[in-house]
Amino acid sequence: MRNMRMSLAPRRAVAALAAVLLAGSVAACGNSDTGGGGEGGNDKIVMGFSQVGAESGWRTANTNSIKEAAAEAGIELKFDDAQQKQENQIKAIRNYIQQKVDVIAFSPVVESGWDTVLKEAKDAGIPVILTDRAVDSADKSLYKTFLGSDFVKEGRLSGEWLIEEMKDATGDVNIVELQGTTGSAPANDRKQGFAEAIAADPKLKIIASQSGDFTRAGGKQVMEQFLKAHPKIDVLFAHNDDMGLGALEAITAAGKEPGKDIIIITIDAVKDGMQALADGKFNFIAECSPLLGPQLMDLAKKVHAGEEVAPRIEVDETTFTQEQAKEALPNRKY
Ligand code: AHR
Fold first, then answer.
1. What is the pLDDT at residue 85?
2. Is the fold of 37-149+290-316 the same as that of 151-288?
3. Which fold is adopted by the domain 151-288?
């Protein structure tokens, strides 16, 4: 009898503990269904992603990286292409808030004007991750982290290479600049980094600077104008490969030899840009990696789990000369 009474007590304790655990796990399931899983309420993390557009080879590689990494990480991706318009991105983000996605990620086409919609996401309890491009919001609590390149550094490395390249030149070196999308972080920062670097050598002068909107067509059109307006152009600094590639057409059509008559510096290092560099048509590229997908998905999992993440995560990058491009090209992934 005594033994039986003693064995009943632990059994009751085990049953009580099981009931508590069961209640806890039901509650946890309920949370993940309302807080996550989107409207369908499944177990997968649902990410709403608003992409800038499809303006460049870099962007295509970035979109592919994000889609592939989401599939690999088991994250359900809702994807929207904003066609380089801020209003489309704001609309997409509002849709994701309504759909109660678990995480919102986006690459902001321009730096300003995000506070209202970011506040709406925060009030809805949906964490936001910035990827590729930054916003200029003073309130850093509006997003969890920013994963992307140091665009100022890319501009600075480009300028430093030019200083070395031109160290023995005599007389003014006339530079034209093809800027990225007006108001975008990469356009603002690359311009700043390049200008700061070349300020060390007063003979390096930017004689014209205009936006080609990060597209080949834009680069070609603006370069044609530059060539008409300025008889002596020594250097082109293009904020991305695509604009540089568009400018190549304009330079060749004007009877000049790209890479020789006009030194060409670009940013990105996508395959077409690297090919132009290896062929001697470009002279230098500062890399900007579009392969952000895997890191983005890791961050999404962490912020969804309520883990702390670093507020700024930088991407490792390098630079390429013509010789280095020849070596790297066969293994280039994008
Ligand atoms: O934000 C990254 C930039 O956007 C890339 O350098 C450019 O090619 C793209 O369009």
1. 98
2. yes
3. Rossmann fold (3.40.50)
Task: Compute and round to an integer the Cα radius of gyration of the chain.
Answer: 26
Q: How far apart are CA 149 and CA 283, in angstroms?
A: 22
Total number of residues shown for the chain? 334
**Nearest atom of ligand 1 to the alpha carbon of 57:** 8
Q: The whole model's pTM is what?
A: 0.88
For 183-189, what is the mean pLDDT? 98
Give distance in angstroms: CA of 58 to centre of ligand 1.
6
Provide the residue ranges of all domains of the chain, joining segments of one domain with +.
Answer: 37-149+290-316, 151-288
Q: Which helix (H) or strand (E) holds 34?
A: helix 2-35
SS3 percent helix, strand, coil of the chain, rounded to 5, is: 50, 20, 35
Query: Cα(248) to centroid of ligand 1, in Å?
Result: 18
| Full DSSP string of 87-107 | HHHHHHHHHHHHTT-SEEEE-
55 CA to centre of ligand 1 in angstroms: 8
Question: Average pLDDT over the chain, rounded to whole?
Answer: 90
Top-tier CATH class for 37-149+290-316: alpha beta
293-304 and 57-73 are packed helices; what angle lies between their axes, rounded to 10 degrees?
Answer: 50
Say whether pLDDT at 67 is over 50.
yes
